[in-house]
Amino acid sequence: MSDSIISDSIWLSRGALLVSAAHQLYVFGEAHEPFLATSTSTSGSLFENVAIKNGPLDDFHPQLVLQCLLWNKVDLVKEIITLLAHNVASARSNELGEMKQLPLDRFWEDDLVPSSTSATKRSLDASALFSHHNQPDSDIEDMFSRELVDRLVRSLEDHPLPHLTPSEMEHLIVLIQTTIEIDEQSRSLDANGVRYLISMRSFFIINRRVTEEGGGAASPGSKSNKGVLAPFVRERIRYRDIVWAFHSETQEILLSASTAACGGKMLWLDARALGVFLWGKSVESLRDQMEVIARNQYMASERDPSACCMFYFALGKVKLVHGLWKQAAWHKEQPMMLKFLSNDFSQPRWQTAALKNAFALLSKQRYEYAAAFFLLGGSLKDAVNVCLKQLADFQLAVALARVMEGDDGPVFQTILKDHVIPRAFRNGNRWLGSWAYWMLNRRDLAVRILLTPLRDLAAESDAPLDEIGDPHYDDPSLAVLFAQLKSKSLQTVKGTIQISGQTEFNFVHQMARVLCRM
């Protein structure tokens, strides 16, 4: 091939591609063509392979299924899965023939608009008159069941679908399993709660499959002896999914589902992986959850008080920790800790002693224990700095600050302004930035950051923004969040008004382009 830049290309008859570069012409086509220089495909013509790679996605493609779930088209996904199961079951050999597809207008229907079953049947039957696709049974949704899903998953594992890579195949199986689970649990959830549950269940299913295939590697719900996540396992869900839970009105159900997904014993690694202390709105609920985590940390560490004291100190339960140390006769630090914790830490003298111990622990690189002693000494700011700098865990800093001083406290506000917002701009993460601005009661900026170029918004920000990364503009679900927030309060309306018509048009156009590519 030539090192020259390609100047033009055009499709010729019979699926051949003509490419010009500098003063040379290159023709690519099928192997039986006399003018072919190189064959680029082993099955099908070049034109067919390019159409598969760049054309619309199949109904069962995991990216399209995921977007349908995020857009709350769960019923549509159930139809897709049921039709796929029918296609797989009717295949006469290991290789599937032409796959039946749903009619295109089925994707345009709004599942959120109440409509009778009979009306839906009439719509599908009418569309069949003008569609060349084979129409699924009108009661296809009624056939969706766990038995069907289990049978389909076994078939897909034995005979992968054509045109899907191994990773896409894995993702599709995870989404199929997730759909049946949320269908069984989503009766009392709002739309945002369902979106979070979809992502949370996918997160655990993916990690479980990695565990099974990797010969017992740890998952977020099962820690190694050192309490560290095993390699090749996703450490947390995406900030997008955390934001869905944050704007849900059914957070108690989500918290129960999250706890159940962790085997009923949520540890800090689980809470961080699911972003619980980011999306929880009720500070009282977060305090209760931190106490649950502290108890679970204590039990998981073979009853070591040092593993849970940071959480208990944040809750102000010094006497409880003192009682735990009484039971730790095996621990070499028991005599010293019993003597030290028997003092009154409301007195400046003992607060100063706790802070001195904290700095000594820092020099020994016992960072979590140092943060605990900073809390014991009444210095939330220093404890948060340890979480941010030494532990590199901003979620832990947020958890401690929200539990100890609430959402309006100065330390929490500083974390948002000096760490979270710069982090969001540095990574180009509009979801995280929107959450941070919402917590700062800048709901106008929480809406604007979804659409406005980050460099334009950075000029108006009070936070130190030294670096701005490439924004994530290829997620169509940003449009869902924007539609929800733009008229939610007077502040969000104000933010929407400040967005120019051209900016909003460009945003909608880009989202439409991404969806059309699917």
How does the overall form come out from the CA principal axes?
globular
In what order do the strands lie side by side in the largest sheet?
1-2-3
Helix content: 55-70%
Low-confidence stretches: 31-42, 112-141, 221-231
Order of helices and strands: EEEHHHHHHHHHHHHHHHHHHHHHHHHHHH
Overall mean pLDDT stands at 82
The termini sit apart by 32 Å
Classify the beta-strand content into a percent band: under 5%
Q: Name the quaternary structure.
A: single chain
> Counting H and I runs of at least 4 residues, what is the number of helices?
27
Number of strands: 3
Secondary structural class: mainly alpha
Rg (C-alpha, Å)? 28 Å
Major sheet, described briefly? 3 strands, antiparallel
Characterise the protein shown here.
A hairpin with a 2-residue loop joins strand 2 and strand 3. The protein has a three-stranded antiparallel beta sheet, with no helix packed on it. The chain is mainly alpha-helical. Helix 3 (74-90) packs across helix 7 (166-185). The chain contains 27 helices and three strands. It has helices spanning 46-54, 62-70, 74-90, 105-108, 117-128, 146-158, 166-185, 191-213, 239-246, 251-261, 268-274, 276-279, 283-300, 309-314, 318-326, 334-341, 348-363, 367-376, 380-390, 394-405, 410-427, 430-439, 443-448, 454-458, 477-485, 490-497, 501-517, and strands spanning 6-11, 17-21, 24-28. The two termini are 32 Å apart.
